[in-house]
Amino acid sequence: MTVRTAGETQAGDVFGPVTVEVGRDTLVAYAHASGDQNPIHQDEDFAKSVGLPDVIAHGMWTLGAAGSVVSDWAGGADRVVEFGTRFTKPVVVPAAGAQVRVEGVVKAVDQDTRRATVEVTASADGAKVLGRCIAIVQLD
What we know:
Blueprint: E1 14-22, H1 24-34, H2 44-49, H3 59-74, E2 80-87, E3 98-110, E4 115-124, E5 127-138
Antiparallel strand pairs: 1-3, 2-5, 3-4, 4-5
């Protein structure tokens, strides 16, 4: 994996889009790993009974998927020093699965600290699912 450097990174640089697939099997595995067994993430009938269109992905899974794309771009998970967002819309996961589209743009590079501020966009089914999604990435 290539580690991104401050010298090669500048405001306006873009990466992606990268498509991350999510299926219901992914949601079950994430529920077991995270301990979040809320049935809205696994039980279609229950999700619909509480007014959702279908099963939805865990918000933290969605953030993690976006974070994986950022860490791949930066050169490793240890390069992402801050990552935050607002959850704007759930990722609906029908039986056939869903796709999350992730892309980013470098907003600023601090040459003294060798850190880049990256605005991340994640969308599913044409709708933005993460808002104000910002990563701070350590560069070499």
